[in-house]
Amino acid sequence: MTSVARGAVRRLAAFTVTSEPGNERVALARVAEAVAGTGLAGQRLDRLKTAVAEATMNAIEHGNRNRADLPVDIEVTQQGTNIVVTITDQGGLHEAGTAEQPDLARKLAGEQSPRGWGLFLIRNMVDAMDVTTDGTRHTVRLTMATTTPADEGATRENHL
């Protein structure tokens, strides 16, 4: 049994992106590169990439308010069979953790803002999402369990 299988934490990547629109694509590409070879593949990898892009976009827009001088810090670790991605902005106490649950009917009726799908989407893309604030640092922690290629094949066969 390897140390990763027993739960040791292994850092796969750590980087920053500037708080400019479009850098969420940089973040998702770097995370995908970092997790290559970990067993996370197929639809689960695509879901993690979507969650990373959305969380990074939120950090850029809502946390750092598109201020290019404020970085978004991203760390990717493997903890046992889990991939954990943390995305940290300098937004401090903002409303991201308390967003209203989106309701499509209310949005279509104009009773709810058409925006506000981000956290809902992220939560439903990954196995776990935690949001914390420590002073000015606001962190979203995404966790996704890895799968093997055999698991992906079995899932595809079940849907055929």
List the helices and strands and how they pair.
Elements: E1 9-18, H1 23-35, H2 42-63, E2 71-79, E3 82-89, H3 104-108, H4 118-125, E4 128-134, E5 137-145, H5 149-159
Antiparallel strand pairs: 1-2, 2-3, 3-5, 4-5
How is this structure best described in words?
Helices cover about 35% and strands about 25% of the residues. About 30% of the residues are buried. By secondary structure, the chain is α+β, with helices and mostly antiparallel strands. Helix 1 runs antiparallel to helix 2. It has a five-stranded antiparallel sheet, covered by helices on one side. It has five helices and five strands; from the N terminus they run βααββααββα. It starts with 8 loop residues before the first strand and ends with a helix. It has a single domain, classed as Histidine kinase-like ATPase, C-terminal domain (Heat Shock Protein 90, 2-Layer Sandwich), CATH 3.30.565.
Query: What is the averaged pLDDT score?
Result: 83
- What would CATH call the class? Alpha Beta
Gyration radius (Cα, Å) is 17 Å
Number of strand elements: 5
Amount of helix? 25-40%
Q: Structural class of the secondary structure composition?
A: alpha+beta
Major sheet attributes = 5 strands, antiparallel
Task: Provide a count of the helices.
Answer: 5
CATH superfamily caption: Histidine kinase-like ATPase, C-terminal domain
Approximate strand percentage: 25-35%
Low-confidence stretches: 155-160
Oligomer: single chain
